[in-house]
Amino acid sequence: MRSYVKRVTQKAEKLSKEQVLSLLETMVEENESLYSVFESLSTGLLIIDDDFKLIRYNTIAESWLPFSQRLEDILGTNEPVWQFIEDEEISAFLQNCMEKNITNSSEDFSTVTQGGTVRFLTVTVLPLVCECELDGKLILVRDITEKRNQEIRLHRMENLANLTNLAAGMAHEIKNPLGAISIHIQLIQKALERARENQNKLPPPKFVEDHIDIVNEEIDHLNKLVMDFLLAVRPIKAQLELKEPDKLIDGLISFFKPEFMKAGIEVVFHSSQSGKKILLDEKLFRDVIMNISQNALAALKSKYGVSGENSESSNLLGAKFCISNAVKDNKFIMTIADNGCGMSEETLSKIFEPYYTTKANGTGLGMTMVYKIVKEFSGEIIVDSKEGEGTAFTISFPIPQKDTKLLSSNSQ
Fold it and tell me: In the chain, what is the straight-line distance between the N-terminal and C-terminal CA atoms, in Å?
């Protein structure tokens, strides 16, 4: 149809009035058909010129991207479209594409709707080619929220698969307190039976009270076991958003570094300097870093005997805590290491198991929660430790695809 119209318009002077009207009707019909297709796309689409000024758009793009004005009002203005996008990260991405003339870039973003729900979007900038020549650019907007949610549900199902082992462990844990309660209640019953047989003469002073005290202690123990179990199996409610872990860790180090320095422990942070973002819940991510760092602090104090009063001399001993970030093979990799007392092979093999702890007042759930959170972020965590030498946690997270390989702006 396009080539037909082109040939006809070249002979427009020779056409009759009826032929011209027929041609116009055909063009209107085709235009309406193309507009219907344009509006029916499940992908948001913005057509812009080389200066990123808006030429055309479809409704879904306007509904997905957070614009400060109606797109109808933006048409015809001399301002680039990114200036009207309220999300700072999306706006900065498009501005960078304009300033550096990038036409083959794609990046994932998380936005919050007016209703408070999180939506994940992929924004792609493509060259607009017309008759083998560049004639502006296309901005594609895809909603990948359901895909992300499916990934989250899959990991939650994997976590639920571990409930059988947790339940078996819980059954073993409550067996001993129940046994102790049963024994002491039987002793009280026998004492009462003997008292009735002996003219209702009561047992020695505090005999019954001592047994009841032990029963109460075991009941408290059982209650704590149940509460810990509920904490261990309760699904994690993660509000995943795209965040830069380098920035988050830098802020966390500023928070806990004074405590380490007071103990004479050197704190080192190596940023990946990549600017990469991964799907995280900021609060839960903080829990992971703080839990591991506090365990490291205890291990360093155990080995070096560091304290606030001995901070200057202890620093000379080489007590060190280090977080190093890197990007490799589309993964963001964090290494959190210390040169403290390390762990035995037994402790190393059980570190992520619920209720296992080497601390006198530990719950045995800290590292279990760390493991669950990392898995909730679709990550992996491994630990390497040698007794007397130190411990290193390596945590890797997938990086959402941003640099999709597309046609370059020089393609013809």
Answer: 23
CA 238 to chain CA mean position, Å: 8
pTM score:
0.53
Q: For 202-238, how does the pLDDT look when each residue is reduced to its tens digit (9 = 90+)?
A: 667 677 778 888 888 888 878 777 776 776 666 677 8
Q: Which residue, among 180, 254, 163, has the nearest Cα to 214 in the 3D structure?
A: 180
Q: Residue written as tokens 């704590």? A: 224
Q: Model confidence over 149-175: pLDDT tens digits?
A: 777 667 666 655 555 666 666 676 777
Per-residue pLDDT reduced to its tens digit, 82-116 = 999 998 999 999 999 999 988 888 888 888 776 66
In this structure, are strands 380-386 and 390-398 parallel, antiparallel, or unpaired? antiparallel
Reduced 3-state DSSP string for the chain: CHHHHHHHHHCHHHCCHHHHHHHHHHHHHHHHHHHHHHHHCCCEEEEECCCCCEEEECHHHHHHCCECCCHHHHCCCCCCHHHHECCHHHHHHHHHHHHCCCCCEEEEEEEECCCCCEEEEEEEEEEEEECCEEEEEEEEEEECHHHHHHHHHHHHHHHHCCHHHHHHHHHHHHHHHHHHHHHHHHHHHHHHHHHHHCCCCCCCCCHHHHHHHHHHHHHHHHHHHHHHHHHHHCCCCCCCEEECHHHHHHHHHHHHHHHHHHCCCEEEEECCCCCCCEEECHHHHHHHHHHHHHHHHHHHHHHHCCCHHHHHHHHHCCCEEEEEEEEECCEEEEEEEECCCCCCHHHHHHCCCCCCCCCCCCCCCHHHHHHHHHHHCCCEEEEEEECCCEEEEEEEEECCCCCCCCCCCCCC
Q: What does the alpha-carbon distance between residue 177 and residue 222 come to, in Å, rounded to a whole number?
A: 7
Contact 314, 304 (CB under 8 A): yes
